[in-house]
Amino acid sequence: MIDPARQNAAAIKYLNVFPGANVSTATIENNYVNTQNEIRNFNDFDGRIDWVATHKDTLFARYSYGQDVFDKTVSVVGTPSGFAAGNNVNHPRGFVVGETHVFSPSIVNEFRFGFTRPLYGYINPFEGEAFSANLGIVNANRSPLLGGGALIGGYNSEISYTGDGGPYEVPQNSYQESEALSWSHKAHTFKFGTNIIRREVDFFQGNDSKGYFFTGPGTGDFTGYEASEMVAGFNDNYSISNVDAYFHTHSWETGYFAQDDWKVSNRLVLNLGLRYDLYTWPVESKNYQSNFDLTTGTLKRAGTDGNSNSLIDTNKYNFAPRIGFAYDLTGKHTDVLRGGYGIFYYQVRGGIGNVLSNNPEFNGTASYSAYSGYRITFSGEAPNNTNLNTAATADLPLPTFGNTSIEADPTNVNVISYSKHDPTSTIQEWNLQIEHQFGQNSVLDVAYVGAKADHETNTYSYTSPQLITGAKFFGSKGLGVTVNTNNGSFTYDALQARFNRNMTHGLQTTVAYTWGHALDDATGAYSQTGGSTILINANGPLFSANYGNTDNDQRQAATVSILYELPFGRGKQFASQIPRAADYVVGGWQINPFWTAGTGTPFNITINPENSSGPSDRPDIAGSAHNGEFKRLPANGNYQWFDPTAFTPPPVTTTTALGPIGIYTRPGTLERNKFAGPGYDTLTASLFKNIPIAEKIVGQLRFEGYNLLNHPQFTNPDSGYNDGTFGQINSTRQHSERELQGAIRITF
Q: Alpha carbon of 405 to those of 239, 299, 400: distances in Å?
């Protein structure tokens, strides 16, 4: 029992909002079930017009429109709950115009101009209602733009998460101009051109704008249970931002190129080219952005004290040579050797959540953790380090928008840092392939394809606990530092084979096979699997310990595609003179089987800290893991994918000489992404029936089946060393079950 005098009134009101249990369980957890409804509306169209103005000028224009909405109901009735619950909008718009002008039979100019405006947005549940304020939870509904509930939760087990980070809107304008002039002269075809893009990314986005009350780790630090933590204790961490502006950023991406297709002889053609790219970093229209300096521990604001408006240098040395060739080996056009090499540049910026406007003076968050002495309840703040929640009578902290006074000595905030002098990310690609033609209709192509990327972006937490000591960089200041630096690398090597048989006697076939291997040491902002933690020691991040198979490394993949027009009906091999009425039933059938199979993708095995003050790690590997054994476990019906006993924890500190006991002293011996999960094997097939309706109108009946044999496509196993189901598979991939559908199509 909790003394009524110790009960936080706002917490009691909050807990009373939850509905009663509707599932009988042996405990008070997992006792409520509700089905969320998802409604998706798509209203999209495209329109195009072509105009032959003169015999030398052709023009076209195209417009695209989208009005797509995804609505999702809450997970706990009566509360603003459930991931992505609310109104999610996507309203893309775009147009492009183009003109091709023929100066002479040998000189042609192509001009294109395009504009796109994708708009993404989110409106949270209970928008327009002071949901949290009505319960006594402060700071959440302080503006008409901030309706609904503050984000509240822990590990989503003892009590369900509710609330959200706040509404957001991200309209983006992109203007693109491209022009290419082609000139054919004797054995050469020269081409010169430009490609210029201006990107404008605007956004209103609250980062924990209504407050994020986090209870954990596990069951809370004060009472041992999440619900009682809210009522009689304190939140383990409170973070909040004071969003007060619409941010407007713009940047440029420009490219200039020249190339020559040179027909050296009847058997040899060379492609020689050079491209120059210039990419600028985003500039905010009012200089509402800053960059955290790791050396000085200060924030550098754009446009002040000698800082540029973009805060990151523009790399001006992005020259990209390209070369390719095609050689007729026999002079009979049946055997051709092709190859090529090129350098390409690209810029990775990590999405809205990783832009420099999200530093704490502007759109960033400030954090107040119990570990640092803060005592936060739903309704107020108590003096530091007290354990009496009734003393929480002071106002909750709230950062001030544009508060530049924190730049010299930021504390208790989350900051973002980019390297000021980073080179542009670069990828080199090369290939060598041989093609052989069989008869008139079949071609076999075998190729080696390689790539090497340099200066890939690593995005990581610089303030994660360190090996050996458990200390954190800037720990005394309570900072959370996200660093972005272009120091990663990537390699890819593959053998690719493809056989294609063109349509002959109603049959077309394509068979393809790829063996490939990709390795990297980068954890970018767009990692497909969330990436892996960069381990840190007192000297800094250990990037080399992160080298391993890429998150999407797949060793083998194969596809077989067949299109077969059944030989029945008018004009076909059989029943070619059948009456037209009968042909509506017998003729016009087409079957299209498509088989695809491949090996699995990697999973990264991790081990939790032995001491909560230390970092997570990868375990040591102490024996054969027997990866892929796929053994059924009678106890729970799961499948054992590998032997969990093949792994052991890395060594930990055993004295307090350098820090707490139980901190990992080194990275585990197991490589990142060492093992791969289950592969896939699916057969998809479609059956089409073409029905002539009028001279230029054709109807089509379509029957399609996905994963027709309903082969289970399993997910990767549980890769958490500390989990009770470590090494086990207990689910299949989303949307991998057999699906059947029918459709009617009219072409006119």
A: 19, 10, 10
